[in-house]
Amino acid sequence: MKLPLSQLLSFTPLDLVKVIVAAVIIVLVNKVQLFNDRLSALLIALPFTSLIAMIWMHYDQQSTTRIANHAEGTFWFVLPTLPMFLVFPWLLRQGWSFWPALFANCVMTIALFWLTVIVLRKFGIDLMPKG
């Protein structure tokens, strides 16, 4: 699939609003983490980003099919990321330092992502269509 770089690299005032909203959510969750790590985990687990993205897709008058595809794809793409939230803390508790543990989890998640894509293709679900 060829990405339209000219569209990706052009920014509108609405794009700036989107960046600010996303940044505010991240900063607020980080601030909550300073006094309650479980509450911040709950907040970050909520699909704010996906909900906001779907609202913006609707605002941009994208078709319901595209919005539905986005929601369904998000479900399948979340699955290979879930083990990271168990393996990463386990590695840290086993004495791994932060950066190697994070790197190992990124490699694992990428491998699980591609495994998910390959397995789901066998069931007729193509998360990475060609073209």
Structure description:
- This protein is mainly α and 131 residues long.
- It is 73% helix and 0% strand.
- The chain has helices spanning 5-8, 13-33, 37-45, 48-59, 64-78, 84-93, 98-121.
- Helix 4 (48-59) packs antiparallel against helix 5.
- The mean pLDDT is 90.
Q: What's this model, at a glance?
A:
This protein has 131 residues and is an all-alpha fold. Helices cover 73% and strands 0% of the residues.
Number of strands: 0
Strand content: under 5%
Specify the helix fraction band. over 70%
Mean pLDDT: 90
Integer-rounded radius of gyration: 18 Å
Low-confidence stretches: none
Structural class: mainly alpha
Q: Main β-sheet, in a few words?
A: none
Broad shape: globular
Q: What is the number of helical segments per DSSP (H or I, 4+ residues)? A: 7
Distance between the termini: 4 Å
